[in-house]
Amino acid sequence: MKLPDQKVIATSAIVFVAAFSVAFIGLSELRSSDSQPYAEDLSIRVNSSIGIATGQVDGKNVTFFQQGTSEAKFFIDVTNDKQPDREIDIERDGEIHRKRIFATLEGQTYSLTIEYSDDPDVEGDAFMEVVRAEALK
Length: 137
Known about the structure:
single chain; four-stranded antiparallel β-sheet
């Protein structure tokens, strides 16, 4: 019985290690790509009765403000300092609207779906509610 020479053994070992490494790395990548990015239905609401509301998006605090009851203005605080960082532009026609806004919280950007309404002729009817948040890649 003839034993295989060292070149055959070394080549077989290299091929086996390479195949095992590729399979292991591929399985790891497959597992990591299966994880879904953050997405959640929410209910963070501000209106003439609730002028400030803080909620959590992916474990991070975000605060919304309403200012005024006639032709209300809505703001978002993404720096968690309880101060408005930017105004959210809305249409004021008395209809309920849905739109997406984008906010970066602690380095991660999220798409926030909001529903809102404001009729400039009706005092105290304005509201805004964040109904969904999704992390962007």
